[in-house]
Every structure is written in C-alpha cells, then in structure tokens.
C-alpha cells in the first residue's frame, strides 16, 4: 500500500496574539512617557510630607524642662522619642484645648507606637488648669517657659511660636524638623508621624 500523505494545506499563523502582547507590554510605558512629557502638571511634586519642613533642621541642646511645680519633668525630655511641642500664652483657652485634643488624637491613633511619641505644652503665661490636664491629658508634659532651659527652647522655635500658631515636631535626636499650623488638620500630622515611625 502507498503511504498516506497529508494533503491539507498548512494554516497561516495570525499576527494578532503577538500584536496584543506588544500592546500589553509597550502600551503602559508609552502612556507613561506621554503623560510625563506632555502633561507636566501631572508629574509628582516629590513632596511626601504634610507639615512644613524646617530646612535645615534646628539642632536643640539637651534641654532640661521644669513643670509648674518647679520639679524637673524628665531626663532629656527632647531625646529618644518623637516630640510634639505646643507653645501657649493664654492659660490654655479654647484654641489651646482644641490643639491639645488634636495632638491627643494623633498620638492615640498611633496605637502600638504611641509610646514613641510624647507631647509637651510650653506655657509662657499661666499654666493650664491641673484638673483639666489630669483628666483629659494625663500623658501631657506641661513645662514652664521661664524655668530651667525652657527659654533656650523657646528661642530656638520660630518667633511666631509664642502666639500658639503651630505644633512643632522634634525628632528623637533633638532636631526641630517640622511645623504644623494650627489651622491645618490633625490627620496630616498623623500621616507624617506614621511614615516617620516606620
């Protein structure tokens, strides 16, 4: 018997799969290139922080701070932790109390990292009501701006700090590095601290 031969013509391959693969791989790169160069307004600004960066950071000395009773607060209160500082000259009026509540929320919502952040109220006039602090802010360090090294700390802050205009952030090495205007939101401060603590 004669051997059987395949008389069917070979099928021609279609180019569509190769074209689809090329579009899938090259398309996103081409789109990104077009957006980057043709739409500069869409480019990332490079800013990743929400607060105002103090540039260059101000290196604070190893300061001692005293509480309203004249006793030292802690050893080196501006070292080993991130520190939020607020300056008040009102005896802690409603604006001051709102700012303290905002910083309380920031710290509390850090959950397991909250012990890595402390808060200091530096008062230049009358101290806040001790009962209010004990009840609402037991973690708050209250420092007399006229005692111990507090004047040096006050002098290192921007001049407008004495008006209670902002909350200031000090890193664990004692560098004053960020400013958060009181008109901003505590959520912005919280986002920055979460990143820094990572």
Low-confidence stretches: none
Strand residue content: 15-25%
Following the backbone from N to C, one meets helices and strands in this order, namely: HEEHEHEHEEH
| Radius of gyration, in angstroms, nearest whole number | 29 Å
- Amino- and carboxy-terminal Cα gap: 81 Å
Q: Please summarize the sheet with the most strands.
A: 6 strands, mixed
DSSP E strands, number: 6
- The residue-averaged pLDDT reads 85
The total count of helices amounts to 5
Categorize the overall geometry. Answer: elongated
Task: Describe the protein in words.
Helix 2 (94-108) runs parallel beside helix 5 (186-197). 32% of the residues lie in helices and 19% in strands. With 198 residues, the chain is an alpha/beta fold.
Features:
198 residues; alpha/beta; six-stranded mixed beta sheet; 5 helices; 6 strands; 19% strand; elongated
Q: In summary, what is this structure?
A:
The protein is an alpha/beta fold. The chain has helices at 16-38, 94-108, 130-136, 150-156, 186-197, and strands at residues 52-59, 82-88, 117-123, 141-144, 166-170, 175-181.
List the helices and strands and how they pair.
Elements: H1 16-38, E1 52-59, E2 82-88, H2 94-108, E3 117-123, H3 130-136, E4 141-144, H4 150-156, E5 166-170, E6 175-181, H5 186-197
Helix pairs in contact: 2-5
């Amino acid at each position: 018997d004669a051997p059987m031969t395949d008389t069917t013509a070979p099928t021609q391959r279609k180019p569509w799969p190769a074209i689809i693969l090329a579009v899938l791989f090259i398309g996103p790169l081409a789109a990104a290139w077009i957006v980057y160069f043709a739409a500069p307004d869409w480019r990332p600004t490079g800013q990743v922080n929400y607060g105002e960066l103090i540039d260059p950071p101000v290196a604070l000395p190893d300061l001692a701070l005293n509480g309203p009773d004249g006793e030292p607060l802690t050893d080196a209160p501006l070292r080993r932790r991130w520190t939020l500082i607020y300056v008040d000259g009102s005896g802690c009026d409603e604006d001051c109390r709102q700012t303290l509540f905002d910083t309380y929320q920031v710290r509390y919502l850090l959950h397991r990292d909250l012990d890595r952040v402390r808060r200091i109220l530096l008062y230049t006039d009358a101290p806040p009501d001790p009962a209010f602090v004990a009840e609402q802010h037991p973690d708050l360090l209250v420092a007399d701006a006229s005692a111990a090294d507090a004047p040096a700390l006050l002098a290192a802050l921007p001049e407008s700090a004495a008006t209670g205009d902002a909350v200031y952030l000090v890193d664990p090495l004692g560098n004053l590095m960020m400013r958060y205007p009181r008109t901003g939101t505590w959520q912005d401060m919280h986002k920055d601290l979460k990143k820094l603590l990572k």
